[in-house]
Write a sequence for this structure.
C-alpha cells in the first residue's frame, strides 16, 4: 500500500474500524454510517456488553474478523448464531480488550461508563487513533489517559457532540490561546421544573429527553445535568483548557453545540441538528467529510434560538461536578463512579431522582475524609479509586428502598 493509504492500483484501501459498544445508541448510529460507505470502511472487530442477539445481527451484517461479548454467558448463543461464518468469537473482559486493540486504523469507543476505560486505554497505548464517544474515560482517568495518547502518538477525535463542535469551531487554533470555551446544555426534561418536582421525578420522566435519543445512563445524566459537569471535565482534558475558561450555557433547542471565544471578541460556534450521526460522520471521515444522511439545518424554520444561565440550585449535580473539576486530584474519578452506581440504582427504582446528586456529594465527602481523593498517577490508580468507590456506593445503596 502507498503511504497515502492508496493501494498500488490507485484505489484507496478501506479504513479498518474497530467498534466497541456496538449494540448501543452511538454504536448503532456508527453502524448506520459505516454500512452506507462500504468502499470506505471495513469493520474488523465489534464488542458489546450483554446483548448477544444484537451483536450477532451486527456481525452477520458487517462480517468483522472478531466479535467480543463482555457477559460470558453470551458466548454460547453468539457462537451458535455465527455458525458457518469465519468470525472469531471471544467473551469476557480480556476479549473486549482484544476487540479494542484488534489491528485497525480507528477505534470507535462507545461503551458506556468507566467500563470503557481499560479497552480504550489499551488501544491508545498501541498508538491507535480513537474516536471517543465515551466521556467517562476522561472523567475517571483524564490526565493519565491523555498522557497515554500523547506518548503513543495516538490521535483522539472528540465524538461527544459539544466537544466535536468545539474541535470544529477551533478551526486549528491552539486551545491555549483562546479566551473561553462554552458548551451548551439542553437543560434536559426538567429545565423548567421546580426543585421539589425534580426531586421526585420518575424514571419515565427522566428518560424523556427533549432533543436526543440516547442510552439510559447518559439520558439520566442529562436530566440531572451531571452530563454537563462530566462534559466540562472532558473538555478540560481534551483541549487542555483550565476550569476558569470553561462555561455552560443552557440552549433548549440543541442546535448550537459548542462555542469558542477568541481574544479579539470573535466567537465561532459549531451548529447542527441534534443527530449524533453529524459528529460521528466528522470523526469517521476526518480529515475529509463524509456524506451523511442527516436532516439539514434550516435556521429560518427553527426561527428562534434561546440561551439561559444554568441553575445550580435546581441542578446540584452540575455544581458538584464543577467543584470536582476545580478541586481536581481524584475527585472527578470519585464523582464519576458514585454517579454511575447512583444512576443504576435510580433506574432500578431503588432511589429517588434527587438521591443521585446527594449520593455523589456524600461519596465525595467520604473520599476526601478518608484521603482517597489524591490525583491518580496512572490509569491503573484511577481504576483502583473507581472500583473502591463503586463497591462502597453499591453497599450503601443496596439497602435503599423507595
Ligand atoms: N448516545 C448518545 O447520543 C451519546 C453518548 N455519548 C457517550 O457515549 C457512550 C455510549 O453511550 P450510549 O450509546 O448512549 O449508551 P448505550 O447504553 O446505548 O450503549 C452502551 C454500549 O456499551 C455496551 N457495554 C456496556 N457495558 C459494557 C462492558 N462492560 N463491556 C463492553 N460493552 C459494554 C453496551 O452493550 P449491551 O447493550 O450489549 O449490554 C452497549 O453496546 C457513553 O459514554 C455516553 O456518555 C456521548 C454523546 C452522545
Ligand atoms: C448528544 C450529546 O452529546 C449529549 O451529551 C447531549 O449533550 C445530551 O444532552 P444535554 O445537553 O441535555 O446534556
Ligand atoms: Mn454531549
Amino acid at each position: 500500500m502507498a503511504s497515502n493509504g492508496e493501494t498500488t492500483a490507485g484505489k484507496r484501501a478501506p479504513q479498518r474500524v474497530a467498534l466497541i459498544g456496538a449494540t448501543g445508541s452511538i454504536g448503532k448510529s456508527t453502524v448506520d454510517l459505516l454500512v452506507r460507505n462500504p468502499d470506505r470502511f471495513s469493520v474488523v472487530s465489534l464488542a458489546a456488553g450483554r446483548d448477544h442477539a444484537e451483536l450477532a445481527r451486527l456481525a452477520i451484517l458487517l462480517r468483522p474478523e472478531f466479535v467480543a461479548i463482555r457477559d460470558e454467558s453470551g458466548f454460547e448463543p453468539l457462537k451458535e448464531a455465527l455458525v458457518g461464518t469465519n468470525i472469531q468469537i471471544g467473551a469476557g473482559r480480556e476479549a473486549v480488550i482484544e476487540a479494542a486493540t484488534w489491528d485497525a486504523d480507528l477505534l470507535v469507543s462507545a461503551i458506556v461508563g468507566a467500563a470503557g476505560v481499560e479497552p480504550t486505554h489499551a488501544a491508545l497505548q498501541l498508538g491507535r487513533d480513537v474516536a471517543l464517544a465515551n466521556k467517562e474515560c476522561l472523567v475517571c482517568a483524564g490526565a493519565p489517559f491523555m498522557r497515554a495518547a500523547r506518548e503513543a502518538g495516538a490521535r483522539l477525535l472528540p465524538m461527544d457532540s459539544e466537544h466535536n463542535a468545539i474541535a470544529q469551531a477551533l478551526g486549528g487554533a491552539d486551545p491555549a490561546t483562546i479566551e473561553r470555551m462554552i458548551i451548551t446544555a439542553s437543560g434536559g426534561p426538567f429545565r423548567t421544573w421546580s426543585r421539589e418536582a425534580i426531586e421526585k421525578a420518575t424514571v419515565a420522566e427522566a428518560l424523556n429527553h427533549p432533543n436526543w435519543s440516547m442510552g439510559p445512563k447518559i439520558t439520566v445524566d442529562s436530566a440531572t445535568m451531571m452530563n454537563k459537569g462530566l462534559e466540562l471535565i472532558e473538555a478540560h482534558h481534551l483541549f487542555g483548557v483550565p476550569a476558569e475558561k470553561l462555561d455552560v450555557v443552557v440552549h433548549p433547542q440543541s442546535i448550537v453545540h459548542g462555542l469558542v471565544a477568541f481574544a479579539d471578541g470573535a466567537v465561532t460556534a459549531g451548529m447542527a441538528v441534534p443527530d449524533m450521526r453529524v459528529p460521528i460522520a466528522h470523526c469517521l471521515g476526518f480529515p475529509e467529510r463524509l456524506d451523511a444522511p442527516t436532516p439539514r439545518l434550516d435556521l429560518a424554520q427553527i426561527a428562534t434560538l434561546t440561551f439561559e444561565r444554568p441553575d445550580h440550585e435546581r441542578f446540584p449535580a452540575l455544581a458538584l461536578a464543577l467543584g470536582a473539576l476545580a478541586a481536581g486530584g481524584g475527585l472527578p474519578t470519585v464523582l464519576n463512579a458514585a454517579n454511575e452506581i447512583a444512576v443504576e440504582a435510580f433506574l432500578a427504582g431503588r432511589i429517588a431522582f434527587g438521591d443521585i446528586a446527594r449520593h455523589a456529594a456524600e461519596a465525595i465527602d467520604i473520599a476526601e475524609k478518608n484521603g482517597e481523593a489524591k490525583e491518580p498517577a496512572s490509569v491503573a490508580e484511577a481504576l483502583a479509586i473507581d472500583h473502591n468507590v463503586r463497591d462502597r456506593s453499591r453497599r450503601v445503596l443496596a439497602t435503599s428502598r423507595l
Summary: Residues 21-27, 47-51, 70, 96, 110-112, 115, 133-136, 160-161, 212, 214-215, 217-218, 276 surround NDP (ligand 1) (CB under 6 Å). The chain has two domains: 15-159, 163-398. Confidence is low (pLDDT under 50) at residues 1-8.
